[in-house]
Amino acid sequence: MPQVRLTGHVDVPADAWSDVLDALPDHVALTLAEPGCLRFEVTPDPGQPHRLQVREAFRDRAAYLAHQKRSRASRWGKLTRGFPRSYQITGA
Fold it and tell me: Among 3.30.70.100, 3.30.450.20, 3.100.10.10, 3.40.1010.10, what is the CATH number of 4-90?
């Protein structure tokens, strides 16, 4: 099975920025602890205010889907629900 890779960004409304950054360390730690997570980076974009760059890699589709399910139910998922996202996903 091929690895699943995701790259792209999330645009965060200015009024949610501090809450999202506060939730980010836990989101990253929980994701990196997931079975099958190979890479997970979410960092502020230095050239675009209130944008987070995202780079992910998972062992396979099952690991990626498990991450999506866990993430949606998390504090992070609830805080960022509905935010504009632009992702390129390969291997899914």
Answer: 3.30.70.100
pLDDT digits (tens, 9 = 90+) for 9-62: 999 999 999 999 999 999 999 999 999 999 999 999 999 999 999 999 999 999
- The pTM of the full predicted model, rounded to 2 decimals, is 0.91
Mean pLDDT, the chain, integer: 95
How many whole angstroms from its chain centre is CA 65? Answer: 12
If phi > 0 it is left, if psi is from -120 to 50 it is alpha, else beta; for residue 36 that is left
Domain ranges of the chain: 4-90
